[in-house]
Amino acid sequence: MTPIEKVEGRAIPFGLKNVDTDVIIPAHWLKTTTREGMGRGAFESLRADPDNLFDSPVFKGAPILIAGDNFGCGSSREHAAWALGDLGIRVVIAPSYSDIFSGNAVKNGILPVVLPQPAIDRLMEVAQTDPVHVDLDTQTVTTPFQDRFTFEIDPFRKMCLLEGLDEISLTEKSDAAIGAYEAQLDADRPWMRPAIA
Amino acid sequence: MTRPRTLYEKIWDAHVVEQRPDGTCLIFIDRHLVHEVTSPQAFAGLRASGRTVRRPDLTLAVPDHNVPTTARLDAAGNRLPIADRESAAQLAALEKNAPEYGIRYIDAVAPEQGIVHVVGPEQGFSLPGTTIVCGDSHTACHGGIGALAFGIGTSEVEHVLATQTLLLQPSKTMEVRVEGQVGPGVSAKDIILHITGTIGAAGGTGHVIEYTGSAIRALSIEGRLTVSNMAIEGGARAGLIAPDEVTFAYLKGRPYAPKGADWDDAVAYWKTLASDPAATYDKVVVIDAADIAPSVTWGTSPEDVVPITGVVPDPAAFADPSKQVAAAKSLAYMGLEPGTRMQDVPIENIFIGSCTNSRIEDLRAAAAVIKGRKKAANVRWAIVVPGSGLVKAQAEAEGLDRIFIDAGIEWREPGCSACLAMNPDKVPAGERCASTSNRNFVGRQGPGSRTHLVSPAMAAAAAVTGKLTDVRELMA
Q1: Which residues of chain B neighbour A69 with C-beta distances below 8 Å?
Q2: Class for the domain spanning B172-291
Q3: What is the pLDDT at residue B22?
Q4: Burial bucket for residue B68 (CB in 10 Å: 0-12, 13-18, 19+)
């Protein structure tokens, strides 16, 4: 996973609420056995409109996406995060996210920034003409007009993003604890194992 | 005395392997369900890093998302080819990966094959008090038997395959209490549509919802699975319903469920799981069952719910400006005008199936409405897709298949089908579908498709009248 610390660039003023992962990447793009190339299917129904934001000369390849409440709701498909990453998006800024999507984003080096709606409204305005700067280390979003918004992020997620950590390697350090848990479970509740061996 | 705890807190506490200083916990996963669409990249990751599957015995793989629902065997019993090259490749990948890593695998032509969320409880693989994950957001379904079950992304699928754990932050708790008795023609699906309309699509974000109250207790396991299935449509990663005698009676004797003395020990343990009377929730919503009508969606978010007796809302009537914009976009997509009576909306397609509503009780409810009637002339396409091979066999033993076929409705093989249109079952652009599935998102049932979410009985009513219909008018 690519580490992330500072991202500066144009921010796509998308702004819609309840954007579901079917909209981010429709199901027919899920028939693949690799993670690559998902960007082609990203926001397919919206990009059918030739005047869409994502393909406009100004915003094509922009590293930041500004969205409304409950971004990434619906299906658990990680393909949504892969598709955003493949479009070049490293940061999403929204008032809230679905729980599954925000986890998937972090695991793919995409920072889900949570800011209240008034901040989103202001950033939507700035994004029309100017770049936005996101700094994960200081947990701030700033603009050339001296706007400065601070955001909260879970410390573990922050560390994973800053260091580009592979979570499985981290968990493997707990191998002994997992083994001990399994042994205790077998002793306490042996019926928990599926009855057919 | 220990602090009073909710059902969620009891299951969580019993699965903490390690707690980190920041509150993140390493949680043990008791059951992992795997299907063909969200697993290939996880197995590829394992292979690339030289890792193996830690607990294949706790993992069950079954193809469901893109299997065709037309005949899978020819007259001689040979497997028929799958026309779509990419679907075939995904199915082949699962068929190769499962045995290679020693994982139990139910293949596409096995009698037990079906939608993972139908198969898990049906096989007794899903049990109360367990943690269950699957690379599919409707894993929330298994909360209907009292399991903490939630959908995960593919990176997490790989993490669970490799370590049998997940790194998680505890969720907040939410109680949705439905008290009283529902009226005639009102099903579990109407209850959960009404709840979703009440709390909103983000109402449960960050929470696990426990459904309580007399109307929930009165539901069969099939009904409870339907309710918990759509917890995710209210933003909650998981739903829960406390296990009780109904749950135990449902699970007893199922293939993977405990047997003999183990069964008694299991039931004794499961009886300790219900939320303590003094336990509190971070959020509580109370609903009067008498307020719930047969329900239907008008827009492109599952929160867009009205009673069938209602009308298409006016976007300007919403208080939230962003909802006004979203509602206007939804209506344009759906081709609906504000003020139109829902019962005047014509329907060209009917889909009865999905992990929400494809169990035997659902098919019985639909057949009861269809019996002695015919599909309306303007209904172009109507299919019933049983949730599993075992549901299909049971329905056929009861003669339900004949009722559907005689009415001009197709009787198919099990799978996810037109719920998400990854297989050939799609609703054409611009056409409407009365669907028993869980999502009315833009393009969900095929590009340009227009979905109205309803119960099985309501879908059946629409099939015979050719428009959205109050099923109570067809009930004797």
Answers
A1: 202, 322
A2: alpha beta
A3: 86
A4: buried
Distance CA B392, CA B378 (A): 27
- pLDDT above 60: residue B465: yes
Q: What is the ipTM of this complex?
A: 0.95
Q: Do B201 and A45 touch (CB under 8 A)?
A: no
| Chain A neighbors of B125, CB-CB under 8 A | 194
CA distance B173 to A74: 20
Topology of the domain comprising B296-473: Aconitase; domain 3 (3.30.499)
Minimal-distance CA residue of chain B relative to A100:
B152
Mean pLDDT of B444-454: 97
* Residues 170-199 (B) with a CB less than 8 A from some CB of A: 171
Instruction: Inform me whether the pLDDT recorded for B308 exceeds 80.
Output: yes
What superfamily in CATH does domain B7-168 come from?
Answer: Aconitase, domain 3 (3.30.499.10)
Stretch A178-189: mean pLDDT:
98
Phi, psi of A146, deg, nearest 5: 70, 15
Residue bearing tokens 């579990």: B188
Q: What is the CATH number of the domain that holds A34?
A: 3.20.19.10
pLDDT of residue B144: 98
Q: Which of A45, A79, A177 sits opposite B443 (nearest CB)?
A: A45
Q: Which chain B residue's Cα is nearest to A70?
A: B202
Q: What is the CA radius of gyration of chain B?
A: 22
User: Which structural domain, as residue segments, surrounds residue A100?
Assistant: 6-164
